[in-house]
Amino acid sequence: MAKAYERIADEIRASIRTGALGPGDRLPSEAKLAERYRRSVPTIRDALRTLRDEGLLEKQHGRGTFVRSPRTKVLRTNERHQWEKRRAAEPEQVRLATGATEHDTGLVLDDLVFHASYRGITASAALAEAFGLAEGSALLERAYRTRYSAENAPFGLVTSYLVRGLVEGNPDLLDETKEPWPGGTQNQLRTVGIELDRVVEHVSARPPTPEEAGELELPPGTSVLVLRKISYDVRGRVVELSDVILPGDRTELAFTTPLERW
Predict the structure, then answer these.
(1) Over the chain, what is the mean pLDDT?
(2) b/e per residue, 209-247, with b = 16+ CB within 10 A?
(3) Sequence-ordered list of residues with C-beta below 8 angstroms from that of 87, at least 6 positions apart, any chain
């Protein structure tokens, strides 16, 4: 038999799903809800906590509890890499029209707020091993945050690494003010004569760090997807590596695998 707080949560959840309570609506105070349902305030708190953990409600300090606005969903497929490769060779006007985020979300360029920051680093033991370089080799670390202009949280936390010696022939590739770059990383690499042969992605899941949960505005208990993308060129070299932290409550990964016929 359902507990009292579960029955209350069920009723509020149903009100949200039917539209009786819409995004941004404020719920009555805990005391008022206790009166309405003829239950104790602690029971009401348990019900509200359940719905916050599901991502349906959010508590705003000093203001109350509100129906959480649904976040933009992101569908990331493995077919995006070939799409990016074809696009990398298109004229700039075509590349300017849309990017990978628009491809994954269905939004348009004017909907997005983009930020990039670059810095030079030396390869740690782990990065050196991933790239097949000597520890301490010069790398370019790039951090990206892209969000829907109507929301505060980015779609993901992206850290990308390039081998400095492979890209410094084009000074623009070391300049964060040139971002967002039409055609993305594959076009950037194309400007220095690098063509990608394959992209390998490893995906795992884990609880977020407090910093990740805050920046991504994750409901309590929500996991993150951790994606490591390794890009190899036609010579077999690792030329780019990305670590991407994706919010588990609004990201879908879809994989299509062509199979050889018997």
Answers:
(1) 94
(2) eeebbebbbbbeebebbbbebbbebeeeebbbbbebbbb
(3) 94, 95, 183, 184, 186, 187
Question: Which of 203, 191, 206 has the alpha carbon at shortest distance from 239?
Answer: 191
**112 neighbors 102 (Cβ within 8 angstroms):** yes
Helix axes 41-53, 4-18, angle to 10 degrees: 50
Q: What is the amino acid identity at position 84? A: E
> Cα separation of 165 and 187, whole Å?
17
Per the rule left: phi > 0, alpha: psi between -120 and 50, beta: everything else, 193 is: left
What is the value of pTM for the model shown? 0.84
Query: Alpha-carbon distance 10 to 50, whole Å?
Result: 10
The DSSP secondary structure of 22-47, one letter per residue, reads -TTPBPPPHHHHHHHHT--HHHHHHH
- Look at the domain 4-67 and name its fold: Arc Repressor Mutant, subunit A (1.10.10)
Query: What homologous superfamily does CATH list for 74-254?
Result: Chorismate lyase-like (3.40.1410.10)
Q: Which of 199, 258, 206, 254 is nearest to 231 (CA)?
A: 199
**Nearest one of 58, 182, 143, 156 to 104, comparing CA atoms:** 156
Where are the extended beta strands (E) located within 54-95?
57-60, 64-67, 74-77
Residues 119-150 have pLDDT tens digits of 999 999 999 999 999 999 999 999 999 999 98
